[in-house]
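Continuing from the previous page of notes. For each protein in this section, the sequence appears first, followed by its structure tokens. Read the first protein now.
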Amino acid sequence: VQLQASGGGLVHAGGSLRLSCVTSGFTFARTAMKWLRQAPGEGLERVSTINGDGTWSHTIDSVKDRFTISRDNGKNTLYLQMNNLKPEDSAVYYCRFNGIRGQGTQVTVSS
């Protein structure tokens, strides 16, 4: 099983990023997926969840008007579109399923 997140970077407040998580080694289309984040000195925070066929999702209140989770089952890839980024969104972002977490991608938002 492999989960490889990418797309992070350094942006100014108000900017946008699109994170991707390319997966392999399991039946992606049948698997609910999550994006989590961890800011320095903080615990893991579940940001967004999507079901296997993409018909249902849930995003935490603090970002739900700015972040959108999606997936392309043909590409075994999970996405997180992040708009109007704020400094408090700075964290390492991870994709995860069934407790398996891949390598994260760093997002840094400058004020």
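Done with the first. The second protein uses the same format. Note its length before scrolling.
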Amino acid sequence: QVQLVEPGGGSVHVGESLNPTCRCTGMSEFVFTQQRVGWYRRAPGRERELVATNVIGSNTLYAPFVKGRFTLSRDNVKNTLDLQMTNLRPEDTAAYYCCWGTSWGQGTQVTVSA
């Protein structure tokens, strides 16, 4: 059974960093590489929006609001998906969700305060 677990959220102040990780279990290393992966977020009162997404062999696509602050990286041996977030802003406050193909994690909360 495929499961995605996302530890690594938290509460920080403006300008600080967080590094949530998505651990994908229930699949082999080869299978992990066969699907699109990504991070999305949903802020209170807003629709879910793309943060970053990657397909093996292609460049990572970032949302315009990332503006060089976030980096998506995948480890195809450990089956993990990291989102390194720097220079965080209050508007980055949201629940962050990772995805592998059509499977989703439960989400991890990121809160940025002034």
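What the second structure shows: The longest helix spans residues 29-32. The two ends are 41 Å apart (CA to CA). We return to this in next week's lecture.
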